[in-house]
Amino acid sequence: MSARSPELDQSASAAAYDPVPAPAEAGDADKAGRFWSGRRLPAGLTALVALGAAGLLLYDLAAVRADRPAMRWRRVLAQELAERPLDDVWVLAGAAAAVALGVWLLVLAVTAGLRRILPMRRRNADVRAGLDRDAAAMVLRDRAMEVSGVQAVRVRVRRSKAAVRAVSHFRELDDVRADLDTVLAAGIRELGLAHPPGLSVHVGRPAKKR
């Protein structure tokens, strides 16, 4: 049998690069911001709960003004709040639940959401476009599979980084990674993203069968 080729002795080759610079275009002056979620479900539930609680309380107050007895739930609540100490377990639990709910609503209000949508460069001030991260990963994966020596590729695209892990069954790994660098950098530019992600490429050999 012939001796094993020395080019297969290398087990891995990896490199990371800064975000690929996007070419300047006419619409770039109007920067494309992130897509904000409408938060329709949390907003709708919060509005319904607030409306129901306010309506019930106003009805009870109007009934008391009309010389009718207050609802039993309000009498019990007022009695419990007057008699229970501040360090009571139920008082602390209710306060913690209210704080957690408030923090959750604040986080929903100040965060954009729709993290899976990557904003694209705006060529028209009246048109906004976005690309799903899975779709971007699929495009880059197809481009990587065209490189000679690549057997399999896994691509994960995030807001600031595109992580590529490839398996090469022949050719020198440094050569394969260099080709991947070139092809994927061009692929990222062609995606037309407003904020192109950085590129991280790792190339290794297939796992040995036992």
Question: What's the layout of helices and strands?
Answer:
Elements: E1 12-17, H1 40-65, H2 72-83, H3 89-110, E2 117-119, E3 130-132, H4 133-145, E4 150-157, E5 161-168, H5 173-190, E6 198-204
Parallel strand pairs: 5-6
Antiparallel strand pairs: 1-6, 2-3, 4-5
Helix pairs in contact: 4-5
Could you explain how this protein is built, in words?
There is one protein chain. This protein is α+β, with helices and mostly antiparallel strands. 43% of the residues lie in helices and 17% in strands. The chain contains 5 helices and 6 strands, in the order βαααββαββαβ. It has helices spanning 40-65, 72-83, 89-110, 133-145, 173-190, and strands at residues 12-17, 117-119, 130-132, 150-157, 161-168, 198-204. The strands form 2 sheets. A 4-stranded mixed sheet has the order 1-6-5-4. A two-stranded antiparallel sheet has the order 2-3. Strand 5, helix 5 (173-190) and strand 6 (198-204) form a beta-alpha-beta unit. Helix 4 packs across helix 5. The chain is elongated.
Describe, in short, the structure shown.
With about 210 residues, this protein is an alpha+beta fold. About 45% of the residues lie in helices and about 15% in strands.
Keyword list:
210 residues, alpha+beta, four-stranded mixed β-sheet, two-stranded antiparallel ribbon, 5 helices, 17% strand, disordered N terminus
- Rounded to the nearest angstrom, the distance between the terminal CA atoms is 20 Å
Beta-strand proportion: 15-25%
SS field, number of helical segments: 5
- Helix amount, in percent? 40-55%
Number of strands: 6
List low-pLDDT spans.
Answer: 1-7, 26-30
Specify the biggest β-sheet: 4 strands, mixed
Structural class determined from secondary elements: alpha+beta
Overall mean pLDDT score?
83
